[in-house]
């Protein structure tokens, strides 16, 4: 499949000419340098509100007109941002309601950025207004290629307007029935029964913070508020520039917004990628980053995404900001493309002289010229990207999926019980992703309500909460021939965090998996159980379900404690498919051993026949194959056939040495 927004890989990033308004000669120098760096796009206007509307209703587009023209003349396409990520001072001064109220109930003062109320009608109106003016002004400008909405939506507001909006949201969610809310929040507990919506406030440290169902509704409400804020922002853009695609830059696995839901509203997803390379764990960073790329790719069923930001060198906000090697930076960008990114973009093009981010990496440093290690590295990468037109728009398909679900991540975070110290839902999911990534098998990362039908294998680590119909969907997937792996604390609660009655896992899943989970043990860090499976022993870390087989084949058993001999790993045939239950957590090599067996048993083929060693990853996108060496040494790779190295234009076959931090792009 294919979906193209551009004909080439976009290479560019955040560009702030408005910070250089007094030195327009720098604008011309930027144009020269961008071409030299093989940059073909710039994202402008992200924080420009005080420049384009210096006073209420007074507009100043002169500089932006000039820049739009200059960029067009120089063959640089513009991704134009709406400015709502930071407000001019006059706006907050005149309309204090636009400022965010913290959980403490105290309204923030003007300052920093991303500091707005999500509900304020004034702010929404002001944002719509400036967006309309931007769209009207540039709708026919040939440089305008995409909209970048605001910047990294996030956070929450507890002002009275947001509280009112939350109550309205709840009324709709519970069909105006306060008793439905009482039932769903289990409000008989601790005398919490409510008789009026006005008795509800947002969860707070000094207020209600123990009703998990309530916290879930608050998460959903805040997430929906961001989405509706976005819809408000894009309304004038859709109307005036219906053909210009719209995205907003998302933040890795940020929990404050249900990105899987939000993605449905975006024309394409984009995200900001800041791994901590070259700090001694590049192998793990590579796996984690790959997982995140695949999460974003999967959000729109495999549709390519944008890597809207990454650093050309170091960031400034880690405790210690290590410089990555230029090769590492390049490899990181290639990894994004390999996983489905149609862009490599940076924060930022040019370092500012002042402000909080003046020491954040940029393509152009304070020295101002091109004779830097970083500039040369970026320029080199740009020339490689220019050879990848064929990749643009290409989907990758997967036969394996790992369920990582935003709503489950909230539920897992909120409940109190078992092991309250170690939840690590995300890390659990990455752990189950890794064995496939290492073997060159593409994996989708999906929400629990995604379509299961195309997968040979679905793994659902720590899927504690089930949304409506999820149990039925899992059952029918397995019945019709699917392979499904669930791990501990599976299917315990419904979408309101109410426990399923009649034994875990929920309802008919006991029959589907052929097990009943009677109790769950939590283990302090220094106490381990052991599991014996496949002729090996594995440590049990932190948590284990004590399950009984009601028909499943027992593949592993506990070795200690009063439940010694009880099953810890089972497999049940159900309909035409199979359901595995991994009752325990192991932080070592169990997932790898088990997945190796699954791959053989289910006969899951890697995307290519290329054989690599540890920490060298292979990824196929369309007909293009990427081989990436994230290990810390030069490594041999065995090619399964003759390939063209499309970067160097040579033919390769047999054994090839891949130097440390390098990659091959093959066809
Ligand atoms: C974020 C923001 C950028 C910038 C970078 C710095 O991703 O979107 O504006 O602050 O971080 O790494
Ligand atoms: Zn508010």
The number of helices is 17
Strand proportion: 15-25%
CATH superfamily of the largest domain: Glycosidases
Major beta sheet, strand line-up: 5-4-3-2-1-9-8-7-6
Number of beta strands = 27
Bound molecules: alpha-D-galactopyranose, zinc ion
Percent range of helical residues: 25-40%
**The first-level CATH class name of the largest domain:** Alpha Beta
- Total separate domains: 3
Class of secondary structure makeup:
alpha/beta
**What's the overall average pLDDT, rounded?**
97
Named at the architecture level, the CATH assignment of the largest domain is Alpha-Beta Barrel
Rough outline: globular
How does this structure look, described?
The protein is α/β, with parallel strands linked by helices. The chain folds into three domains: 10-156 and 224-391, Glycosidases (TIM Barrel, Alpha-Beta Barrel); 400-602, Rossmann fold (3-Layer(aba) Sandwich), CATH 3.40.50; 611-666, Immunoglobulin-like. It is 30% helix and 19% strand. It is built from 17 helices and 27 strands. Helix 1 (24-36) links the parallel strand 1 and strand 2. The longest helix has 29 residues, at 212-240. The structure holds alpha-D-galactopyranose and zinc ion. The site of alpha-D-galactopyranose has 9 residues, from loops.
In short:
The chain is α/β, with parallel strands linked by helices. It contains 17 helices and 27 strands. Helices cover 30% and strands 19% of the residues.
Labels describing this entry:
3 domains; 19% strand; 9-stranded parallel β-sheet; 17 helices; 667 residues; globular; TIM Barrel; binds zinc ion; 9-stranded mixed β-sheet; binds alpha-D-galactopyranose; 27 strands; alpha/beta; Immunoglobulin-like; Rossmann fold
């Amino acid at each position: 499949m294919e979906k193209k927004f551009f004909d080439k890989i976009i290479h560019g990033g955040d560009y702030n000419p408005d910070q250089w308004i007094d030195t327009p000669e720098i604008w011309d120098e930027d144009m020269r340098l961008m071409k030299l760096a093989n940059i073909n796009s710039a994202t402008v206007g992200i924080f420009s509100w005080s420049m384009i509307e210096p006073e209420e209703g007074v507009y100043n587009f002169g500089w932006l007109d000039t820049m739009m023209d200059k960029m067009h003349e120089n063959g640089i396409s513009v991704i134009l941002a709406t400015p709502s990520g930071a407000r001019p001072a006059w706006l907050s001064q005149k309309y204090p309601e636009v400022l965010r109220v913290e959980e403490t109930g105290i309204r923030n003062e003007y300052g920093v950025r991303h500091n707005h109320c999500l509900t304020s009608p004034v702010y929404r109106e002001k944002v719509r207004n400036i967006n309309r003016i931007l769209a009207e002004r540039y709708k026919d400008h040939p440089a305008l290629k995409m909209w970048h909405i605001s910047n990294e939506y996030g956070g929450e507001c507890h002002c009275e307007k947001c509280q009112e909006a939350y109550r309205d949201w709840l009324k709709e969610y519970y069909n105006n029935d306060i008793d439905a809310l009482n039932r769903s929040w289990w409000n008989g507990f601790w005398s919490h029964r409510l008789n009026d919506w006005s008795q509800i406030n947002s969860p707070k440290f000094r207020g209600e913070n123990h009703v998990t169902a309530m916290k879930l509704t608050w998460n959903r409400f805040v997430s929906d508020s961001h989405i509706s804020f976005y819809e408000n922002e894009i309304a004038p853009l859709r109307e005036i520039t219906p053909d210009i695609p719209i995205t907003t830059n998302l933040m890795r696995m940020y929990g404050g917004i249900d990105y899987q839901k939000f993605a449905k509203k975006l024309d394409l997803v984009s995200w900001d990628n800041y791994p901590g390379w070259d700090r001694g764990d590049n192998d793990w960073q590579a796996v984690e980053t790959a997982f995140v790329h695949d999460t974003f790719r999967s959000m729109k069923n495999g549709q390519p995404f944008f890597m809207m930001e990454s650093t050309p060198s170091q960031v400034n906000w880690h405790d210690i900001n290590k410089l990555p090697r230029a090769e590492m930076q390049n490899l990181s960008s290639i990894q994004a493309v390999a996983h489905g990114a149609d862009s490599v973009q940076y924060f930022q093009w040019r370092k500012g002289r002042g402000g909080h981010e003046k020491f954040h990496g940029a393509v152009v440093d304070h020295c101002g010229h091109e004779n830097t290690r970083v500039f040369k590295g970026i320029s080199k990468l740009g020339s490689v990207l220019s050879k990848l037109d064929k990749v643009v728009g290409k989907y990758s398909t997967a036969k394996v999926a790992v369920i990582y679900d935003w709503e489950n991540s909230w539920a897992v975070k909120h409940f109190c019980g078992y092991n309250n110290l170690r939840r690590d839902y995300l890390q659990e999911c990455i752990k189950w992703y890794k064995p496939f990534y290492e073997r060159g098998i593409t994996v989708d990362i999906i929400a629990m309500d995604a379509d299961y039908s195309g997968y040979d294998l679905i793994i659902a680590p720590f899927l504690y909460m089930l949304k409506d119909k999820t149990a039925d969907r899992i059952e029918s997937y397995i019945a019709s021939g699917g392979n499904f792996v669930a791990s501990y604390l599976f299917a315990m609660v419904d979408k309101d965090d109410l426990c399923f009655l009649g034994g875990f896992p929920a309802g008919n899943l006991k029959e589907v998996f052929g097990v009943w989970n009677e109790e769950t043990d939590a283990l302090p860090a220094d106490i381990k159980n052991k599991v014996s499976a496949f002729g090996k022993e594995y440590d049990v870390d932190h948590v284990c379900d004590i399950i009984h087989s009601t028909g499943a084949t027992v593949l592993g058993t506990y070795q200690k404690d009063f439940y010694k001999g009880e099953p810890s790993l089972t497999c049940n045939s159900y309909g035409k498919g199979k359901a595995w239950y991994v009752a325990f957590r192991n932080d070592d090599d169990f997932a790898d051993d088990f997945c190796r067996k699954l791959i053989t048993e289910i006969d899951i083929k890697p995307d290519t026949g290329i054989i690599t060693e540890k920490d060298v990853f292979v990824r196929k996108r369309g007909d293009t194959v990427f081989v990436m060496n994230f290990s810390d040494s030069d490594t041999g790779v065995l090619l399964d056939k003759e390939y063209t190295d499309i970067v160097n234009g040579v033919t390769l076959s047999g054994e090839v040495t891949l130097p440390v931090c390098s990659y091959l792009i093959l066809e």
